[in-house]
Amino acid sequence: MKTLIRGGTLVTEYESLRADLLLEGEKIAAIGPELSCPEARVIEAEGKLVFPGFIDGHTHMDLPVCATVTADDFASGTAAALLGGTTTIVDFATQEKGETLEQGLDNWHRKAEGKASCDYGFHLAISQWDRQAEADLPRIFRRGVTSFKLYMTYANQVTDRELLEVLLALKPLGGIVGVHCENSGMIDVMQRQVKARGITGPEGHPLSRPDEAEAEAVNRLLALARVADVPVIVVHLSSKKGLEVIRQAREQGQQVYVETCPQYLHLTDRVFEGADEKEGRRYICSPPLRTGEDLAALWEALDEGEIDLISTDHCSFTDAQKAAGQGDFTAIPGGMPGVEDRVRIMYHSWVAEDGAEPSRLVRVLAAQPARLFGLYPRKGCLQVGSDGDLVLFDPNWEGTIRSDQCHNAAGYTPYEGWKIRGRVEEVFLRGHHVVSGGRLIAAGLGQYLPRSSCQL
Ligand SMILES: [Zn+2]
Known about the structure:
By secondary structure, the protein is of the alpha/beta class. 32% of the residues lie in helices and 23% in strands.
């Protein structure tokens, strides 16, 4: 199986260059001007950008949460990912209380195996930290899981003591932790206060989760990480105040990686103005959508290179599932779809509108996640010997994002009606042509990716 991608503009994290690219079997076999390979099938890519397959380091497929299960399982979620140009996800396998870490990981293998259309790895969310969990860690590493998730809020939150113990336990193994930073106690009190003011609809959600809750938790996490002397990842950073805490720590020499998501770069709490409850519920995610000032601060940080990766936190629910929170914003399942929109919305805003070099997109959507999660250079780059994961992108296409054309199982997109430039046309996964003309032509080819430790 040989495919020659001819005449396109290859985009690496460093530059854009006109060159041909040959896929042979599952790998990139050659890159150069005017390649010739008579037996290869030829794809004309004149006028197209050729990106390495994009990596989404933060998804929740088939996750039980809020007495329901996310709308997307590994079949629908990874198909939507491929259609959006994402060829690899790193999903959060989650240990439920009462399970061992290995049981949690086993469960996620069962959910994904044979169903995934893009390649996948797992982080492991630790919900019960004890001697057994600590003893399991080396086996978890041998199974290719090197990154972990801890929550400072929600039912599976860890205490500061547990957080520090996990950081210390992972240190000799070379593991890294991504942390959901929000002050749980602050949110509990604020939720009661907001409800006491008679606010029960979705607009109460951002009011009950102030930016101070994020900034305080980021600050506490970074203090614990300094004590443990390990790098950490702040996942889905949403606020200017949180960003400022990170800046200060970095100025003192602390190693901290920052992830944000397209929703925090494109949507604000103004979405709740004039929205009915049903529409408002679609925008409930945690941390919540914030103000225009926060959004502007995150864009500035992105432009300055202070954001390491942009993931989706894809966690989708249908309107019917979201209706569990009718009249009580604290009962709305939190999360929104994103895997299909991430690449096109970031391309549109950053490259087409703001004039950023396309290579910057490759850095935060592919190369940095690959290194951070131990997949480089198999994934995240265009190099001879790397997996044949490619996205052929038409930079001149103009159109509108429509919910009825989306492929996630939630049935809507938070970017409904957005007019954008650029779209994913062809996608190759390990040399297989899986998306053609924007349509999925091969499903279920995704494979599990055992990962090495953080390469940053
Ligand atoms: Zn998440």
